[in-house]
């Protein structure tokens, strides 16, 4: 049942439709009346009938054509269906014919293989027999399920008979190939071994062939290792390289293994496929571990590596921060730890790991070719390697990105297929690389190398710490030098140790040494170098003459400094220069290490790059700490040296009048009573330190001195009273001082003068209204400033204090005007 509201809506719509119908009919009738009136009643009826007749005839013609088209479509549809059925039947017949022909060919091949394999075996034509077996093994299994044909039985070549013949031939040929391979291996006949090695894949015995060939390669590696081990026991072939005897022995072993892989890789890839090279590497890896382990064990035993690591560990645990370098050197000597011997030992350890890393990189390059998109990366990696032997050159060449094969566009229909092929190849290489990394990481060689590197880091840290403490103990200042020998010695030692760890090609080892180096600089080095700064600059009895004497003493060497105070001043200034110069040394160290990373660690992953960046950021923090200590020293030097003199010189400003008349102002313009003498004293005071400080310290001293000058001048200004002319004279004197300081210390000094400049400008206003407008203008400038302009540097309290210095401004008027600014 519809609701009453819906019925009412329907009725309303019906009424609207009726009204619209009536309007349309009315318009039609009106048009007909107009046409009838224009043409007449008879003509109109005749024309109307003719139009209707034409339309009916057109409708009949269209209907006839549509019926004809429908009949044609039905006929065509039937024909198409008939053709489709016939084509499907033809396709089915064709596929069955092709399948039948394939079966016939398979049966023919089966008979050919059965008849030919036995003859080939009897004639020792094992390659031909293996090809017959290979064809037999690749036949469709459906061939062997087919029933025997009468003619085939009569001919004596039934399917069952052929299958039995070939199966027995397969077993016999496998036995013969294995036997002949073992005989050739025993006789050392390499050509025969390679001949029969190629036959294993044809009879589907890949693993058997690889295992036998892998055992043969292991024997070669064992002989190679024994030969080089005997040479090592005899002391090597070059007396000049006895310090790296064990590293050279490992290199020779790696060279032999690389030569073996390089020689047999083409046979393996062509006969067994590229994937089987990784399987062969897994088979020979234990023998590589064994031979390399012998050399490394001999190194540990004869170089007393474990013993030295224990001694270093015990010394490190016993050493306290208060122990000096001399006392630690005595302890080291008593324990039998020689720094020079440690240096040679550490260099050999890193060289051994470098050779192992280079050998692993050679294996990765042999197994995984670089993707096409990255073939041009790290083109000059090998140019900076300094290997001396053939394996190193070969392995470096293998480490270089190879020329990517030209993926001819003719092999692919479109760009999308080419990209798909490249992507599949890239994933395959990544999979091979992951498998190889797993093999290498689990190997005994990798485990042994990691153990060596762990102890290497401990010994290297001890060597670096001992060397730095010795450099601190031997710190001296050469004649004419502003810095001491400490900087060159310490940063040389730190860079040497870190660069030695970089040569190991181990990112974790490099990060550990970066952390140790940064920690050593922040503890031992910074503690020593910052001690005189914390004590402060001795100022007792200071004068321009004593400053000149200090400069002469420093210029002529530390040994000529006489007296306790003079020595303390000389040490303070040298330390201050050391701190500032250390910042440049840290930056040079960073840039040098970054270049070493680019040369020696160009192929590391993005994650390893982040590790290095994080470790290197410690040097940025250390440089900031050095700058803080240097700035602190400059502040203490200025406080001890300049503040008393500037304070005394500024007191002379209080002795001259500041409420001037026109005559006094004119006289002051001719003969400056204060500023000229103040600048002369300041210039004489500053000039003494130009020869004592490095340029950066001298520049910072000028800035600090300028700040002190402004503060002292501001102090005495607030003790005086000015009239309009006195304020004008003060402005002239301040401009003279500002120009002098700017010419001395640069434009940055003007920022230090902003506050006093605004006060003096406020003091020079002619009326309080002008003063209020000036402050409001400064406030507007501050609000619209983008951060470059100084804006307002004085508070309302400073404005009140400044205006009170004007003797012609009453306090009541000043208070009233300042209420406007507060509002």
Automatic annotation (TrEMBL):
Membrane topology designation: Peripheral membrane protein
UniProt record, GO biological process: Golgi organization; protein transport; retrograde vesicle-mediated transport, Golgi to endoplasmic reticulum
Family as reported in the entry's similarity comment: Belongs to the COG4 family.
Domain COG4 transport protein middle alpha-helical bundle, residue spans: 166-534
Any GO CC annotation of this UniProt entry: Golgi transport complex
Positions with biased composition (Acidic residues): 398-414
Name assigned to this protein: Conserved oligomeric Golgi complex subunit 4
Region named Disordered: 378-428
Main location: Golgi
Gene3D superfamilies named in the record: 1.20.58.1970, ESAT-6-like (1.10.287.1060)
The entry's keywords: Coiled coil, Golgi apparatus, Membrane, Protein transport, Transport
Source organism, top-level taxon: Eukaryota
Record field: compositional bias (Basic and acidic residues): 378-397, 415-428
Entry's localization field: Golgi apparatus membrane
Database matches in Pfam families: COG4_C (PF20662), COG4_m (PF08318), COG4_N (PF20663)
Coiled-coil boundaries: 7-72
């Amino acid at each position: 049942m519809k609701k009453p509201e819906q019925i009412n809506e329907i009725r309303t719509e019906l009424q609207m439709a009726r009204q619209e119908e009536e309007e349309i009919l009315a318009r039609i009738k009106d048009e007909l009346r107009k046409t009838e009136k224009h043409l007449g009643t008879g003509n109109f009826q005749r024309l109307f009938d003719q139009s209707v007749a034409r339309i009916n005839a057109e409708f009949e013609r269209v209907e006839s054509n549509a019926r004809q088209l429908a009949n044609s479509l039905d006929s065509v549809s039937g024909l198409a269906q008939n053709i489709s059925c016939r084509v499907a039947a033809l396709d089915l017949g064709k596929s069955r014919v092709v399948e039948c022909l394939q079966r016939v060919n398979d049966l023919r091949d089966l008979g050919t293989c059965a008849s030919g394999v036995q003859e080939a075996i009897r004639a020792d034509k094992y390659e031909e027999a293996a090809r017959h077996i290979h064809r037999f093994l690749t036949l469709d299994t459906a061939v062997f399920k087919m029933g025997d044909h009468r003619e085939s039985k009569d001919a004596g070549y039934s399917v069952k008979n052929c299958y039995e013949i070939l199966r027995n031939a397969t077993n016999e040929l496998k036995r013969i190939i294995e036997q002949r391979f073992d005989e050739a291996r025993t006789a050392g006949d390499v050509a025969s071994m390679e001949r029969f090695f190629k036959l294993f894949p044809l009879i589907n015995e890949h693993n058997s062939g690889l295992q036998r060939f892998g055992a043969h390669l292991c024997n070669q590696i064992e002989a190679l290792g024994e030969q080089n081990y005997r040479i090592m026991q005899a002391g090597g072939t070059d007396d000049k390289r006895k310090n790296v005897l064990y590293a050279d022995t490992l290199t020779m072993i790696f060279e032999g293994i690389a030569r073996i892989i390089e020689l047999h890789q083409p046979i393996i890839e062509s006969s067994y496929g590229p994937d089987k090279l990784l399987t062969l590497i897994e088979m020979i890896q234990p023998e590589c571990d064994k031979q390399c382990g012998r050399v490394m064990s001999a190194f540990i035993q004869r170089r007393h590596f474990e013993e030295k690591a224990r001694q270093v560990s015990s010394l490190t645990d016993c050493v306290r921060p208060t122990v000096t370098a001399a006392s630690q050197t005595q302890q080291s000597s008593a324990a039998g730890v020689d720094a020079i011997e440690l240096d040679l030992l550490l260099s050999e350890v890193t060289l051994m790991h470098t050779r192992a890393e280079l050998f692993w990189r050679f294996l990765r390059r042999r197994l995984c070719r670089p993707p096409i998109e990255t073939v041009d990366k790290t083109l000059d990696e090998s140019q900076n390697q300094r290997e001396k032997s053939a394996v190193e050159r070969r392995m470096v060449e293998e480490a270089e990105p190879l020329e990517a094969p030209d993926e001819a566009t003719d092999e692919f229909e479109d760009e999308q297929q080419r990209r798909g092929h490249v992507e599949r190849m890239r994933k395959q290489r990544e999979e091979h690389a992951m498998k190889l990394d797993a093999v290498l990481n689990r190997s005994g060689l990798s485990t042994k190398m990691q153990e060596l590197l762990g102890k290497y880091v401990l010994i290297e840290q001890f060597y670096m710490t001992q060397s730095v403490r010795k450099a601190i103990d031997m710190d001296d200042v050469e004649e004419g030098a502003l810095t001491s020998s400490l900087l060159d010695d310490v940063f040389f030692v730190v860079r040497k140790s870190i660069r030695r760890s970089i040569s190991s090609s181990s990112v974790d080892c490099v990060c550990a040494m970066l952390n140790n180096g940064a920690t050593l600089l922040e503890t031992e080095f910074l503690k020593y170098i910052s001690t005189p700064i914390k004590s402060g600059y001795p100022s007792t009895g200071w004068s321009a003459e004593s400053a000149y004497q200090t400069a002469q003493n420093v210029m002529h060497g530390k040994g000529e400094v006489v007296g306790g105070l003079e020595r303390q001043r000389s040490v303070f200034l040298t330390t201050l220069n050391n701190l500032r110069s250390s910042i440049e040394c840290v930056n040079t160290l960073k840039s040098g290490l970054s270049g070493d990373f680019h040369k020696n660690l160009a192929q590391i992953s993005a994650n390893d790059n982040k590790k290095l960046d994080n470790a290197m950021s410690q040097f940025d923090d250390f440089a900031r700490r050095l700058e803080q200590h240097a700035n602190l020293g400059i502040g203490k030097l200025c406080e001890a040296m300049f503040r008393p003199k500037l304070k005394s010189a500024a007191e002379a400003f209080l002795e001259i009048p500041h409420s001037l008349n026109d005559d006094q102002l004119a006289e002051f313009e001719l003969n400056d009573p204060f500023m000229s003498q103040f600048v002369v004293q300041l210039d004489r005071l500053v000039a003494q330190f130009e020869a004592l400080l490095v340029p950066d310290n001298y520049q910072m001293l000028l800035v600090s001195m300028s700040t002190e000058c402004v503060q002292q001048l501001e102090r005495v200004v607030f003790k005086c009273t000015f009239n309009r002319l006195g304020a004008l004279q003060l402005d002239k004197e301040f401009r003279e001082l500002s120009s002098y300081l700017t010419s001395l210390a640069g434009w940055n000094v003007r920022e230090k003068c902003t506050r006093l400049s605004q006060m003096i400008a406020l003091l020079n206003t002619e009326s309080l209204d002008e003063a209020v407008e000036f402050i409001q203008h400064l406030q507007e400038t501050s609000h619209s400033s983008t951060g470059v302009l100084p804006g307002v540097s004085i508070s309302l309290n400073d404005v009140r204090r400044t205006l009170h210095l004007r003797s012609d401004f009453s306090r009541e008027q000043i208070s009233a005007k300042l209420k406007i600014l507060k509002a």
